[in-house]
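comment on this one:
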Amino acid sequence: MVFSKHRAAITALFLLLMILLCTGYAGAMQSYISSAVTRCLTIIVPSLYAMMILSQLLIHTGVWRILGKPFRWIAPRLFGMPDYCFALFLCSQFAGYPVGAGMLQELAEQGALSQKDAGRLSLVCFGGGPAFLLGILGDYPNRFSVFLLLFFCCCLANGLLAIVLFRTHPISITEPKQRFQPADAALWIQCTASAGKNLLQLCAMILCFSGLCGILDGMHVLEWTASWKLPDSSAIVQSFLEISNVIQLSLPFSLFLPMLCGLYSFGGCCVLLQVRAVNKYVSLGSLFGVRLLSAVFSAAFCKMGITVLHWEEKYDTAVAVSGYVLRETPNSIFPACMLLIMTLLVFHLHHEQCAHDRANRSVISKDDKTK
């Protein structure tokens, strides 16, 4: 009882402090949140929305089990997981940050995975996805080759960690007994509504952390980080908190790619909290530690790839002379706004359908009672 009172008092003081900080640094927060809204509409929503819907369809139709069949020999022997879990591992690398954890949460609730295994798999079923990375790179020189290198290094780091984590303590290999369900119109609406809800939560977390960066800037904490010996430390700190801030990185080519690869593999504190929110079975401390290891491995693999491909001699001078930095892509936000409007319409239709189903069930139950 005393401990709970202390926690309540600490929470109240913390919230009061945050209210005072938000009031005192409202101008700085407004600038950062405004920039975050633009990033959400031009990068986050276009790159993740479609993959979130497809991942929901993969789970609810049961098709996800088929994707791992070609790997049924190598997956349990090398990675310590059955073929259908390896299919989830592969899908999560392409789907986007919180999607893999959400898929595992769904399967744990369906009884296809144990809660412990769902939490363990969430440590490595983690990836930003090609669409997000390409959106971040924008018009960067040699964009597609750079994308392939970064994406391969992050997948390689996750695969290496999967071997380390599951080779001696494998994931349960009991195959789930889930029937295949046709992807009819009702299922499409349900999956679209669920994906839209998850995406809106992710964007809300991004805006929250952008406000935190505004407070840190107003308190001159980011200026203090600029005194560190680490180049472009302010942008790195902001990216460590919220990954879409990597568009502010401005480093030489040989340092920029490993740093971007490491931050992309880590995902940022904002994404880690989002993963924990969509998957209650994962330990936040374990997730933080494993993603830090993944960031180190990814950056090291990227550095080795640059050396092997001789990219330092080929691109470093050109990029340094041009002074190129990442920035928001100049795409119109109109398509993203239309996506949000259509999602709200789907929410409305889904709500009406649920209300209609509840009304039908109540009528049936009354008829049963009268009989």
Notes: The chain has 17 helices and no strands.
